[in-house]
TrEMBL record:
Residues 22-41 bind DNA. SUPFAM superfamilies: Homeodomain-like. It comes from the Bacteria. The keyword DNA-binding applies. This is TetR/AcrR family transcriptional regulator. InterPro entries: Homeodomain-like_sf, HTH_TetR. Keywords: DNA-binding. Residues 1-59 form the HTH tetR-type domain. Pfam families: TetR_N (PF00440).
């Protein structure tokens, strides 16, 4: 039932972005009583928070996988691999992320911190390979800036892209921008 309520909430978020549904709307959509909703969750925010945590885990896994694939690629291809992987992960969880962006809360910021922290060591690999002239502190600073820029660019492509825009072209442009930032730091 818990899984059913989470899936139903996700469906409602996807159908009516970026509005959080009420628990009553969730109960109606899930074809359960309001008491059933409250048996499993104290409120809609708790459900959205659980969906956000699931998204964070999946985005972290997707970004880790993309960085792992990128390690042996040429720099330009590696950056496209990372940008594509993160953009696709954001797209997969767009409904939950959109609620976080528009609710005036800092859920996405917290989520990104949760994603970025464990990936920082992996995030150092490509910049360190491209910039062997930099010391550890300079690499750390570069990774801090590039990871933030990557999150911003990928989330814009995934969540805010105008309908007439070419997604693949935007991914390519973002990758070139990030590569230039790393190479010219």
């Amino acid at each position: 039932m818990r899984k059913h309520l989470l899936m139903s909430t996700h469906e409602l978020l996807a159908r009516n972005p970026p509005v959080r549904p009420s628990t009553t709307a969730l109960a109606e959509h899930a074809h359960v009583s309001i008491g059933t909703v409250y048996r499993y969750f104290p409120d809609i925010d708790a459900i959205v928070d659980e969906l956000r945590m699931t998204a964070v885990h999946d985005i972290t896994t997707s970004l880790s996988t993309a960085i792992g694939r990128a390690m042996d690629q040429e720099p330009a291809v590696a950056m496209v691999t990372v940008v594509e992987g993160l953009t696709a992960a954001f797209e997969k969880h767009a409904a939950v992320l959109r609620v976080s962006y528009t609710s005036g809360e800092s859920e996405f910021g917290m989520a990104w911190t949760e994603i970025e922290g464990p990936l920082r060591p992996l995030g150092r690999i490509i910049p360190a390979r491209l910039r062997p002239d930099l010391d550890d502190a300079a690499i750390d600073d570069l990774v801090f800036i590039v990871m933030g820029a990557t999150a911003s660019l990928c989330s814009r492509i995934a969540l805010l892209r105008p309908p007439q825009s070419d997604r693949d072209k935007l991914v390519s442009v973002a990758a070139r921008m990030l590569l230039a930032a790393v190479e010219d730091a």
